[in-house]
Each structure stands twice: as structure tokens, then as C-alpha cells.
Design a protein that fits this description.
The two termini are 21 Å apart. It contains 4 helices and 4 strands; from the N terminus they run H-H-H-H-E-E-E-E. Helices cover 40% and strands 14% of the residues. It has 101 residues and is of the alpha+beta class. The protein is globular.
Length: 101
């Protein structure tokens, strides 16, 4: 489970983050734990790299994703589920994701 207190990610940011089906698909990919570049995320969710990059800005602004070396995106350290886990704790809500796809 997350070790980030719920107050770190404002509810308004989470509401914006979860308001778009494309971001749900991206969240599912990130929850699998593999750091990915925008181009690969875009391919996996069936969106353009430009649009995926814009969605990733929402993830970064919300504090849900970070970009690291090589411009690889992944969930923020305190939000990463354990390998094989399907529950993602975003502070204000728990998400049950099927990461086996």
C-alpha cells in the first residue's frame, strides 16, 4: 500500500486525473510497474505520442507519475504497488486494477 498521506495528492487533482478514459488506460500500464517512454505508453494505449505526453503532464502535475532517466515514466515511488498487486492506493481512493492484461 501507499506510504504517501492522502493530503499529498489533492482530491481535485485525482478527480481530473481519473476523468479521462485514456488516463485510466495509462494508469493501468503504469501500475504494471515497468518504466516506459511516452512513445511506448502511446502504443500500448492506442493514442498518439503527443496526446499521451499531454496526459502524462496531468499525471506529473497530480504527483502520481514521475519521469526518470531516459525520459521513462512510472508511478511515483509511494504509489507503486508491490509486484503482482492489483490495488493502487491513491490516498483518497483505492483502485482495483487488472494488471494481468
Amino acid at each position: 500500500m501507499s506510504n504517501i498521506p492522502p493530503s499529498v495528492i489533492p482530491l481535485e487533482n485525482l478527480a481530473l486525473l481519473l476523468s479521462d478514459p485514456a488516463r485510466w488506460a495509462i494508469l493501468l500500464e503504469l501500475a504494471k510497474g515497468e518504466p516506459l517512454p511516452v512513445k511506448e505508453l502511446a502504443r500500448r494505449v492506442g493514442r498518439t505520442p503527443d496526446m499521451t505526453s499531454k496526459h502524462m503532464a496531468v499525471f506529473r502535475d497530480a504527483g502520481v507519475a514521475v519521469v526518470g532517466y531516459g525520459r521513462l515514466y512510472q508511478l511515483a515511488p509511494g504509489l507503486r504497488p508491490e509486484p503482482g498487486a492489483t490495488t493502487l492506493d491513491l490516498g483518497h481512493c483505492l483502485l482495483k486494477l487488472d494488471t494481468r492484461q
